[in-house]
């Protein structure tokens, strides 16, 4: 079940009591890093603080996540929440400015009688509540708490992953997209070219099958398949387990291919340096506007399958403009994984990073 989208049919309350961090604690083998995680946990840091080292573009998504928390707190204190504020600073200070404030006691929680908002065309919008998501029978406040808890635990583990990656000098990229945009094809084509120069490895995320890991292993590059079952995204714990299984040499390049899903992977920090969003020209140039969180969280957008441009209605410039609307910092590379057109720019980008 995904705490962000509420999808899946596992009991949502059950998931809330299920701690990935504890599982990790039981089995963890790395003294130093474990201690770091423990110290970190004891400081009781919040999810929003974990993200401060991220480039500005990524903060947009956390801003989205925190916006609703912030909005509630701010409304309770009778002032509005500026949209373009300096995020790290503002929330940190805010946190300390109202140390005794408890969310539970707020009398402003109207979420139990949550109703979709309607526009002039009578369209229904279910994202207007505090949680930005609707799950029948669960209040907005409860949803918000669940999402915050899940992301908080995930973010602690992402931080732990990041410590591993830093120590072992791994460049880690999280490839995100809808199903079939060409992630695995781009990966295998890339690996064929660069594996001679640089140690590479891949963590493959899919709900079922080892198809993608098999495709990667066929190039000679080590890969671990992570099947998520009903899960709609990889989380930091899965990546941690797969990472240790891979036993990479220092200074390598680790690609994580996330589950094909333009929604949920946006919210889960895996400890990667960058998210790379892959969009193919058959999907439509409006995708960055329809699924803004994903493009806001990504530092690079690859527009793939440009060999098909003569056959589809897709305006590359409009697509880029749409992506920049949700993320002015996003870099864009257009290419075809199958013909190789534009691949050099991607390879150069990899080298620079
Ligand atoms: N024409 C064209 N087809 C491509 C290109 N890249 C990938 N494809 C095709 O698109 C289909 C899906 O490619 P995959 O690489 O499996 O896509 P994916 O994103 O890994 O898919 P999931 O793992 O299921 O999310 C395959 O039939 C590929 O051959 C491209 O640049 N041009
Ligand atoms: Zn989901
Ligand atoms: Zn570890
Ligand atoms: Zn794939």
Describe this structure in words.
Helix content is 42%, strand content 12%. The chain has helices spanning 12-16, 20-27, 31-42, 47-50, 56-76, 87-97, 140-167, 183-194, 211-217, 236-246, 287-290, 292-297, 316-326, 343-352; strands spanning 117-118, 124-125, 171-177, 200-206, 223-227, 253-257, 274-280, 300-304, 331-334. β4, α9 and β5 (223-227) form a beta-alpha-beta unit. A 7-stranded parallel β-sheet has the order 5-4-6-3-7-8-9, sandwiched between helices. It has a two-stranded antiparallel sheet with strand order 1-2. The chain is an alpha/beta fold. It has a domain at 147-352: 3-Layer(aba) Sandwich (Rossmann fold). Residues 9-99 and 101-109 have low confidence and may be disordered. Bound molecules: guanosine-5'-triphosphate and zinc ion (ZN) (3 copies). One zinc ion (ZN) binds next to loops.
């Amino acid at each position: 079940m995904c705490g962000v989208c509420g999808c899946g049919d596992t009991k949502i309350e059950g998931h809330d009591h299920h701690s990935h961090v504890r599982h990790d604690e039981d089995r963890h083998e790395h003294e130093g890093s474990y201690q770091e995680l423990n110290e970190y946990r004891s400081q009781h840091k919040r999810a929003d603080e974990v993200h401060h080292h991220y480039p500005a573009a990524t903060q947009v998504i956390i801003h989205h996540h925190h916006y609703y928390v912030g909005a509630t707190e701010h409304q309770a204190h009778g002032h509005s929440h500026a949209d373009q504020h300096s995020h790290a600073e503002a929330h940190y200070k805010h946190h300390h400015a109202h140390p005794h404030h408890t969310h539970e006691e707020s009398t402003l929680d109207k979420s139990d009688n949550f109703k979709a908002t309607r526009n002039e065309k009578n369209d229904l919008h279910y994202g207007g509540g505090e949680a930005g998501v609707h799950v029948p029978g669960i209040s907005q406040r409860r949803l918000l708490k669940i999402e915050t808890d899940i992301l908080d635990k995930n973010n602690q583990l992402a931080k732990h992953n990041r410590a591993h990656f830093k120590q072992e000098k791994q460049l880690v990229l999280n490839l995100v997209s809808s199903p079939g945009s060409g992630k695995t094809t781009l990966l295998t084509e890339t690996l064929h070219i660069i594996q001679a120069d640089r140690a590479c490895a891949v963590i493959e995320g899919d709900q079922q099958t080892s198809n993608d890991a098999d495709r990667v292993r066929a190039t000679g590059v080590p890969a671990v398949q992570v099947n998520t079952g009903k899960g709609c995204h990889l989380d930091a714990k899965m990546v941690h387990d797969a990472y240790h299984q891979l036993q990479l040499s220092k200074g390598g390049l680790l690609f994580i291919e996330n589950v094909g899903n333009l929604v949920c992977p946006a919210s889960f920090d895996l400890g990667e340096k960058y998210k790379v969003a892959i969009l193919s020209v058959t999907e439509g140039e409006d995708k960055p506007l329809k699924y803004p969180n994903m493009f806001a969280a990504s530092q690079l957008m690859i527009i793939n399958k440009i060999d098909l441009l003569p056959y589809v209605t897709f305006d590359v410039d409009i697509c880029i403009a749409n992506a920049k609307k949700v993320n002015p910092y996003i870099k864009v590379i257009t290419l075809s994984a199958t013909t190789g057109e534009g691949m050099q720019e991607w390879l150069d980008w990899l080298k620079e990073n």
